[in-house]
Design brief:
This protein is an all-alpha fold. The chain is 77% helix and 0% strand. The protein is globular.
């Protein structure tokens, strides 16, 4: 059977299943099973061996621990102090609640790694406060949706863990590479929100509350435990004292202790956090092993090699090919979640990036920025659906319209990463040059 016909059967079947509402993981699993039987001639028990290999990865065991760490803060309500504290620190900016929410999201991203958890947490906590204060709903919801994506860029990031384990790239170096772009994008979001409110004061009421220096110092002391936990988790990773998995277990333990100290830990919150971590981790594991199976089928029939040869044969420069890949990811992001898109396309894209001479640490961070766009673009932007669940009176398209102004700085950051790769590579080089 020809490569073209086998590719048509596999890719056409995948599109057909997705079009009829089958979830991405079962759809990939079905087509991988057909490919194993029809083209690779391997027994289906190969699925079990692949699933065991995925679950037996020491790198991937960090995922449930980081998810649990973030859900503890969310379910116990401890994260509320991040929002209220950030509001007091930057309360003089136009649209201060939006800026405070972005700052709190950035800090939460450094203790979570899950965009969906961030969107759910701040949609539940911040939007009622903004609505009560008279903020424009479109601005509020758009800012919450887009700033939730900071959790996949600012370490620890679940996407970076998967990418690192998938491509055999140092997760610690990936984390270090995401620090500076994450800070820059957070500042870009704050600047964007401030400009929007300054141009149209009707979007947000004018801030009248003034906070004294003493109140701001007290807030900094209140936020100190979060800063210590972030410093311990990321510091032990960057220094090499702990692996990401070991640091994740430390962070999970410290999150429980902090919730107990704040007297917000309950048995129900602990149980809910554990179940959330199990559910998310099981979903990720299902996606990972079905995608690996399908990728191996693609590799066996020669599709990945043929696609790489085709792209490399185009009469274009390396940055033009990268631009095509960026456009592909932006389009795919409208229909796939970031994780599924990553593991489904890496067998095709990774060889191209290698042949073009792109650094895999740099590309991992660039992919995360592209994935951020997909998280807030309809029809399947997951952050939009999460917020829709908390505020059902607003449509998906309405929430998306609120994110559009914030997509501009996201695209600007991507351009900056291309023009100045050192924004990603400087810190990993500094930390691991020896």
């Amino acid at each position: 059977m020809s490569l073209e016909l086998m590719s048509l059967i596999l890719l056409g079947g995948l599109v057909f299943l997705l079009a009829f509402g089958v979830e991405i993981a079962p759809a990939m699993g079905i087509m991988a099973g057909l490919g194993l039987l029809l083209f690779v001639h391997q027994p289906l028990d190969y699925f079990a061996r692949c699933a065991f290999d995925i679950m037996n990865s020491f790198t991937f065991t960090a995922i449930p621990l980081f998810v649990f760490m973030g859900t503890i803060y969310a379910t116990t309500g401890t994260v509320r102090s991040l929002f209220s504290g950030a509001e007091k620190i930057i309360g003089n900016l136009p649209g201060s609640l939006v800026s405070a929410m972005i700052v709190a999201n950035a800090i939460f991203g450094a203790i979570s790694g899950s965009s969906l958890a961030a969107a759910a947490t701040f949609g539940k906590i911040c939007f009622p406060e903004m609505e009560k204060a008279g903020y424009d709903p479109k601005l509020s919801l758009g800012a919450i949706a887009i700033s939730g994506t900071l959790s996949v860029l600012i370490p620890p990031s679940l996407i970076m863990i998967v990418y690192g384990g998938w491509q055999d790239v140092s997760v610690a170096r990936l984390f270090a590479g995401g620090v500076i772009p994450g800070i820059i994008l957070s500042l870009f979001f704050i600047i964007t929100a401030t400009i929007l409110v300054m141009r149209n004061p009707k979007l947000a009421p004018r801030t009248t509350t003034k906070f004294t220096r003493g109140e701001k110092i007290k807030v900094l002391l209140d936020l100190l435990p979060f800063a210590i936990i972030i410093a311990l988790v990321l510091g032990t990773i960057f220094s090499g004292v702990m692996t990401p998995t070991e640091a994740a277990s430390l962070g999970a333990l410290l999150s429980i202790i902090l919730a107990v100290v704040y007297r917000q830990m309950t048995f129900q919150a602990l149980k809910e956090s554990m179940m959330t971590a199990v559910n998310i981790s099981a979903m990720i594991a299902f996606v990972l092993f079905t995608a690996r199976m399908l990728g191996q089928v693609f590799q066996y029939i020669g599709l990945t090699e043929a696609f790489s040869a085709f792209m490399m044969g185009l009469p274009l420069g390396k940055y033009s090919i990268f631009a095509i890949i960026c456009i592909m990811y932006i389009i795919l992001g409208c229909f796939f979640d970031a994780l599924s898109m990553l593991v489904l396309t890496l067998p095709f894209v990774a060889p191209i990036m290698k042949n073009l001479g792109f650094d895999f640490i740099w590309f991992g961070v660039a992919y995360v920025v592209l994935a951020e766009i997909g998280l807030v673009t309809p029809p399947f932007g997951l952050n939009l659906f999460v917020l829709k669940g908390f505020v059902p009176k607003y449509e998906i398209t309405y929430i998306f319209m609120g994110t559009i102004p914030f997509l501009i700085p996201t695209c600007i950051l991507l351009v900056l990463l291309v023009l100045f790769p050192e924004l990603v590579l400087w810190l990993p080089t500094l930390l691991y040059s020896k």
